[in-house]
Amino acid sequence: MSDPNTLAETPGITTTGSGIQGLSWSILGQTYVPKTLSASSMSWHATFPPGTFVPPHVHPTQDEYVYMLEGRLDVMLDGAEMQANAGDTVRLPLGLPHGLFNNGDRTVKCLFWVSPTRRLFDLFNAIHNVPDPSEVMRLAGLHEVDFLPPPA
Q1: Quick check: pTM over 0.85?
Q2: All structural domains of the chain with their residue ranges
């Protein structure tokens, strides 16, 4: 990818079922399809099959948002537990630890976005099809996403 600080949005339409640059990432059982990309923000459609999750982590340089399209996610945000349902928007300010869990029996579909993009696009390229969670966590730390240790 080019320098994320100078990346300009490309005009047009990202159609249903497709990602920008034809991309679709498989990340620890979830599918992420990038929809927009510029220096100021990035968005992606995410599909969380039952039992999949994003472990608690921190974005020290980005605000993150999730708009729920289908299903329910259990959200851990700065130590508090809550649920997000279809139609809800989850706000995850930079620096606050958060995790997302599909503990239900239905697939969850949602739209994520971050601002600014920083190194997240490169991270998703790097962890696409990486089966080892510890390697995903190591690579995330190199791309400005810090996973938290499991609870004691």
Answers
A1: yes
A2: 30-143
